[in-house]
C-alpha cells in the first residue's frame, strides 16, 4: 500500500461522490473478483472455506464459521462500480498517480508521460505519505518502478517509500 501509477485513457475522469470527493476504486479485475467471490460462496454453502493453500484450496469451516454467512466471512459481493474500468490496452495511453492505502484514489491529474507527471507531483508537493513530499527525481523513480510502499522504517524512524526507494 502506498503510491502506484495507473494507466488510464487520455480523457479519464475518476468518479466523485456527491460531495466532490474521489470514490476509491480497486485496480484489479472486477470479473475475476466476482468469479472468486462466487466460487467462495459456492464452497461456503458446501461447508468449506478458503485455505489460502494452492495445493489444497478448501478446508472445512470451523464451528464458529458455521454460524456465519459468507458475506460476514468474506465481505460483500463485488460490485462493478467499485473497480476501475477494464479498458483495452490500446486505450490506456496516459498515466496518473494514485494512493492505494484505500482501494485507490488519484493524487494527480492525467499525464501522457512520466516526466510531466513527476514534475507536477514535485511542484505541487503531492503527498508521498501523510505530510511527506518528494522531489522530482524521487517521483520519477517511483513512476518508472510503478509503485512505492507507504513508508519504510529502520527501527528508529521512517520515511516515505517514494523517498526511500529512490
Span between termini? 17 Å
Q: Percent of residues in helical segments?
A: 25-40%
Structural class: alpha+beta
Could you give the count of β-strands?
Answer: 8
Average pLDDT, rounded to a whole number, is: 94
Total helices: the number is 6
Largest sheet: 4 strands, antiparallel
Unreliable sequence segments: none
Rg: 19 Å
Give the DSSP E fraction (strand runs of 2 or more residues): 15-25%
The outline comes out as: globular
- Topology pattern, helix = H, strand = E: EHEEHHEEHHEEEH
Question: How many distinct domains?
Answer: 2
Major beta sheet, strand line-up: 5-4-1-6
Describe it.
The protein is α+β, with helices and mostly antiparallel strands and 166 residues long. Helix content is 30%, strand content 18%. It is built from 6 helices and 8 strands. The strands form 3 sheets. A 4-stranded antiparallel beta sheet has the order 5-4-1-6. Strands 2-3 form a two-stranded antiparallel sheet. The chain has a two-stranded antiparallel sheet with strand order 7-8.
Amino acid at each position: 500500500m502506498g503510491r502506484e501509477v495507473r494507466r488510464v485513457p487520455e480523457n479519464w475522469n475518476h468518479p466523485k461522490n456527491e460531495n466532490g470527493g474521489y470514490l476509491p476504486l480497486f485496480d484489479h479485475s472486477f470479473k475475476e473478483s466476482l468469479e472468486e467471490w462466487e466460487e467462495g460462496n459456492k464452497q461456503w454453502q458446501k461447508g468449506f472455506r478458503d485455505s489460502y493453500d494452492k495445493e489444497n484450496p478448501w478446508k472445512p469451516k470451523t464451528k464458529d464459521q458455521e454460524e456465519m454467512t459468507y458475506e460476514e466471512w468474506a465481505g460483500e459481493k463485488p460490485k462493478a462500480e467499485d473497480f476501475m474500468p477494464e479498458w483495452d490496452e490500446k486505450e490506456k495511453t496516459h498515466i496518473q498517480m494514485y494512493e492505494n492505502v484505500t482501494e485507490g484514489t488519484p493524487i494527480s491529474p492525467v499525464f501522457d508521460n512520466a516526466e510531466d507527471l513527476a514534475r507536477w507531483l514535485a511542484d505541487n508537493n503531492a503527498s508521498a505519505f501523510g505530510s511527506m513530499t518528494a522531489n522530482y527525481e524521487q517521483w520519477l523513480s517511483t513512476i518508472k518502478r510503478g509503485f512505492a510502499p507507504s513508508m519504510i522504517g529502520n527501527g528508529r524512524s521512517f520515511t516515505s517509500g517514494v523517498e526511500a526507494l529512490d
